[in-house]
Amino acid sequence: MKLDIFNHIFPKRYYERMLEVAPNGRDMHKRVRAIPSIVDLDARFRIMDMFGDYAQVICLGAPPIEVFGPPPVSTDLARLANDGMAELVARHPDRFPAFIASLPMNDPDGLLKETERAIGELGAVGVQVFTNVLGAPLTAPETLPLFELMAKLDLPIWLHPARGADFPDYQKEKKSHYEIWWTFGWPYETSVAMAHIV
Fold it and tell me: pLDDT at position 165, please?
């Protein structure tokens, strides 16, 4: 069996709420909305069937939940996402054998509670974090307890790049140009996050 261990999906109820909260997304938020298989299971299954014996460990795609608003908006979205992914795993275990939890990284207490709920009650196999939390490093004091909790649980943390066109490539620019923000920016952003963590 081929097992894709980092595949993005938006559970239907999460997707609908995301569009209510942020109807005018940009960067990756705008792009992922144009991919039918991110929400449409029939479209996804047709693609998956082309690869034979193939399954996906599912997680949310960009953007990070915390960009949609402060707690309780982000906390509620995380719960909705994790409930939706757990439901997909329960309904389609041959297609989706596991899921990776999403967290409200801008809610220091809520992110730990949601980690424990998603893993302990819903069966998540780990958590996904993005390479920065609204511009702050993952090693900020508010987020370090997550690393301690995951070490205690002995479960992995998936790291997803988070850098939009609003990250300029030069100090005197207002934004990034020519798709540099993700083509070169994502590998750089991921490297910086890993250097901070180590």
Answer: 84
- Domain boundaries along the sequence of the chain: 2-197
CB crowding 102-130: b at 16 or more within 10 Å, else e = bbbbbbbebbbebbebbbeebebbbbbbb
The sign of the torsion formed by the CA atoms of 72, 74, 80, 86 equals negative
CATH number of 2-197: 3.20.20.140
Q: What is the pLDDT of residues 122-142, one digit of tens each?
A: 999 999 999 999 999 999 999
- Do 117 and 78 touch, CB atoms closer than 8 A? no
- Asked if residues 125 and 98 have their Cβ atoms less than 8 Å apart, the reply is yes
Contacts of 18 (CB under 8 A, 6+ apart): 10, 68, 77
Q: Which residues of the chain have pLDDT under 70?
A: 25-30
- Contact (Cβ atoms closer than 8 angstroms) between residue 26 and residue 165: yes
pTM: 0.94
Q: Tell me which residue of 56, 64, 70 sits closest to 28, measured CA to CA.
A: 64
Q: Which amino acid is at 2?
A: K
DSSP 125-163: S-EEEESEETTEETTSTTTHHHHHHHHHHT--EEEE---
